[in-house]
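Revision sheet: structure tokens.
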Amino acid sequence: VVFLVFTSLRGVRFGSIDYSSYAAIVGVSLFLSYVVLPLAGIRLVELALSDAAVIGFAIALSVPATAGSAIIWTRLAGGDAQLATMGSIASLLVAPVATPLVLTRLVGSRIAVPTTSILTDLAVIVGGGVLLTAIVPTDALSTETVERSSTLAILLLIYTAVAGVGVFGIDARALLGVVGVAVLLFCLGVALTAGCQRALGIGRDRGFALWFTTNLKNLGIALLVSLPFAEPLVTAAIIVYYVVQQTGGAVIADAT
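Predicted:
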């Protein structure tokens, strides 16, 4: 997971980012991603699913943006990739504090959330990724090597999570319910960001950056946070929601 954070930050030219012009939109993205979408989304999830699936979606809604995908899909959609970069980095940096707080708010009445453990793990992950970015030269690894390594790391994370909790034993009806709720959450995220874009008069290019940094959640961090909750539906909800987000992001980028 540290390596995935490193690949997200690799090559970013922090000196070229116009921080002052992006601050307000980044603040809106963080507010939507860590407050509005989790609080509204968990209500939707609780109407349709059981405790284990609710926990899985709560974790997925609590984690930061997946920087690599958010930046790539924004660029392919013709959006402001620099804004997507800044928003993704901001989301990662506040995650060690925001994620355990949001998760506790969403499911603290159902389970004992290991807040200290999550905070420590995320601090190590984000700090390790930033440290690698600082010490590894940009030209030390080719783009192709980084992309392949990132894909392999994600596949290993999914395999570890799936193998550890027996996802393949999930009832088909329960899994179908998880897929349906994931699609509804995706639509909710689209509606929330579109509404904010219109209300605040945000342009099309920055609107794409806002949408992707708000709605595309970090799979690696979500799976790590889910490890103490060894329930198949927890892992299934996280993975399904991630797949729906990425598929939807690809459709949006392709359509524009």
